[in-house]
Protein 1
Amino acid sequence: MKGSKLEIQELFQGDVEIPTLPEIYYDFKEAMEDPDGSFDRISEIISTDTGLSVRLLKIVNSAFYGFPSQIETISHAISVIGLEQLNNLVLSTVVMDRFKGIPDSVINMESFWKHSIACGLAARVIATHREEVNTERYFVAGMIHDVGRLVIALSAPFSILSVFMRCKSDEIPLHKAEKEVLGFSHTDVGKLLLENWQLPVFHQNVVGNHHTENSTDLESGILNIADHLANDLKLGDSGEASFHSEFNTEIWEKLQLSEGGDLEKIKEEVEQLYNSTSQIFLQTA
């Protein structure tokens, strides 16, 4: 430790066990990437976890997708939404289940996940208006964009409380208070965690860069705007609601959304989607 500041690696090396993803996720991923794999094998893996299967089917049958008829089995879900989309849903579901035991006095976890869901939905809506391929990966990115803050809360709860106090006393965005107090921010910690989890480089990069103000990376830009919209709509709070970053008009203009993608319409769309689907995701937390 240098001076009073933590080294980022210390968060992963202390007595507190940092969550890992469950074995079922890696089994599913391995089967999905196996050229000789089958839908039946993948369905079989997911079906070994009844709770996960039920949650996935609830999501697939919700307004999140808006299918006209009922999807009754995991095999049916795969055939309708595809493996890549299912992979993203599995990931978003299992991550929420990994962070337990953080007291409300440090971070209110229900409020944290509400914000994360809202950010994920906003990122997905923006990506849809940009006509991006695989919009579900943006949903996942939004869901996990602040997990670095949970790692800090688990490993260094007194430090995260000092960050919150600095944020309020100086009236600065939380990620800037983290830099001042800790020497790094939750984005740095989040990126390292996702590397340890062996998640796709896409997720590592957008989580690591979503507060980078002058980034030319439009994928991270989508997450930056989504984060702002979730805070602006006051849908949950990951700690940033009172003093979050200003809306970045430069990033917004670079996104060049398709017709109908104006800010107020997107906010409306996000709020409606949040109201109709958030409880399904929160059942996991």
Protein 2
Amino acid sequence: MCKVWRTLKFMEVRNALTIGRWLKLSTELKSYSYSVLCSNPSVLKRNVDRSLSPCYEILRSLLGSDIKFAGFFKNSYQLLTVKSVSNIARNVSVLRELKAPESLISYYATCQPLLMSLENEKFHQNVNKVMSLGFRPSTSTTFMKALFVISTTDSSKWAQKMDFYKKCGWTEDDFLLAFSKNPLFMNMTEKNISSKMDFIVNKMALVQPADLAHYPTVLTYSLENRIIPRASVIRVLLLKGLIARGDFSFNSLMIYNNKKFLDKFVVPYQPQVPELLSIFAGEMGLGLVELGIRV
């Protein structure tokens, strides 16, 4: 039996019926209501007049549609309190005053409500810190990503991350450059980053550590599914003298889709190196390949 009915035993039926009517304010809410209530029956304990309706009115005006509110309701019902929603409203106003794109404001208010529901003073501090690092809400597509990272990273963790990257061969300027390019690389674990840097810099010797600061998105790619196969192909081509280091950009060869990479670095060289496709597919280890085809 759905947990909703067990919860009903401990509350006034009239309040439940009122909530049921409230949930049918729109087709979108109605379509979500049953699944939300079955998985989160505590919603039925909320007072419609003092909690749910005021939250709905605020969020509906901020998000602009019932369908966006429905998404918020489904994913973040626990934040449907007047205090949290009021914080969201104030923080949205801050971003609008700074000319942040409405599409990003709406996305983060709906999909990252914990960030947007921070106390206004703390939110202001985080915004100011992000802007001090050179991000501008009106022009930088990475501003909101940087705000998210700053809001979830305290000063000690920030210092710890910087120390880690210094051990990997970066300077403080390299670290800040990488953050400006893609703040989300900060969410990668040290183990994950260490394994990727070790493979790219030490085992493959394709770039220097500081080079990766210019394209940190590479560090967010899968080591097994993208970095190893592509770097291995390039390594073999270099060993065979079929390409030179100036013939490719490491960043570009990592962001190419599979077809473009194959067309550019595998298919043209298969007559000379038949094993290339197997290397790319991960069917042949680089160690065996180097033993067999090293010039």
Protein 3
Amino acid sequence: MLEKGKSYEVKEWFANKIAQEMGRNIESCDVFAVIKETEKAVYALLNLGCDRRKTTWVPKSCLIQHEVGEDEKGFMKHETIFEEDYEKCVEFFKEHWRDFK
């Protein structure tokens, strides 16, 4: 089980695979919300930057765990949400990006 109260990011090689599938560059690939979790993977709503999102299965081996807050490079790591309701996750995502507009 993933640990609550942490921030999760997708490893670069897997993020590149997602970008290729989408046919566009992405700015980040953070796990905004975990919708489902199995022993080996999570079904996650990914924050791809600039109000872009994608929902997909991500192997747990492709996740990097971070502490919530500002990292050593000055980037903010937001807490990953655990919510089974997809529509709620999308609404939380939209609210998150409203703060940056």
Protein 4
Amino acid sequence: MVPQTQENPSQSSPRKDTYAIGELSRLVNLSQRTIRYYEEIGLLHSVRRIENGKRVFTDGDVRRL
């Protein structure tokens, strides 16, 4: 019997597609105000907002920060 070397994809933790500003802040260890400032000066582009006006960040934003 050969040991299995590949991880079963169903067992790996799912990646999250979007993040609220508080989640992003904790992930990248920056204040929410700093993240808003980076958006304001153009370091983060195309930040989406949901119906209630809250910002929604992506994995791309996590990588950029």
